[in-house]
Amino acid sequence: MPTLNLQIRDSMRLIYINLLFLIIANSNQLFAESIFLKKGDIIEGKLVGETENSVSLSLPSDKIEIINKNDIIRIVYSKDYIKSVYIHKKDKTVTKAHIVYEKPGFYIIRENLGSPDEKTIRSDEVDFISDRKVSREIVLKEGPEIQTLTGGIGFYYCYGYGVAPLKYESNFVDVNGNHITERTDAYFSYHSVGILFDSAVTGKSLVNFRMNFDFKFASIDNKKTSEILHYTITDIKKAYGIGFYMSWGFAFFKGDSVRFWAGPQFGFGAFWGDDSNSPPWSYSDFFIGIGAVSGINFILSEKFAVCVEGGYRLFSHSAAFRSNKEKYVQVGSEYYENVVFVSGPEHEFFLGVAAVFIRP
Length: 360
Known about the structure:
10% helix
């Protein structure tokens, strides 16, 4: 089936090109340096030069800024300091702060990241450090992962494209008493918006559980006129749908600014709508299936992340077309409801992006 293979190949290429573009577009920010100035400012960019008295920094705007070394406190080569943590001391006090520098035996912290005021805490005074404000008893009970597990909820957009080799079977029969059947390829495409929940947007947890619920705006092109069934199913311009998906992700990379994960997915949902023919046909469809998904979470701050995901789904469809004009078909002396049943698998590729608010 050369047309089907070509469509699948083109869809996969589109997904991978978009993912590669997003990774490249964000690479400068992911690996940039941060320069702490004595007046309290923090400048982020890429070091491109250095002299005895100054350093040259390439800013995200591509502007080159020259900074006098006398104005610099330190240069940091990671973004760990951006995320605030809770420092639990052995004297039972808890301090929420940013660890801006760590050296053997000491932590240097800022309670306000934009202020030049810094404090030094000896590491032997610290009981433990957590990403959330939790009791020592909870840490001992649930293990160290509780310190770095941070989930979130957000809104997302998704585009999907699918190809389905479907079987059409009429509810009515021919003069010989047989149901009429046909087979043809249908092409699905949709845009969807919805909400997303993820149990581990950031953190050291190996596994994350993600739920997506969306509302779809779809179109379906069957590419074929059904002459045998004496009607035309060619184009459905106004199909709507809902979908619910559950993903189990396993992290391959767990950084402070990026989390890359992949895993299996289970989903189900429904479509409904009307075709564009005269007389019109109404359409209803239920689908269920499994798939594989991978995602990249870009952690932009301690409270916000942008998540990109994409993958493949294999669905089973069970649908029906019902005539909105000719409700019944007469065959001999018998009357049959004018319904055509549709069933078959669908190969779907999808790409989505989400804005996620990380829970404290």
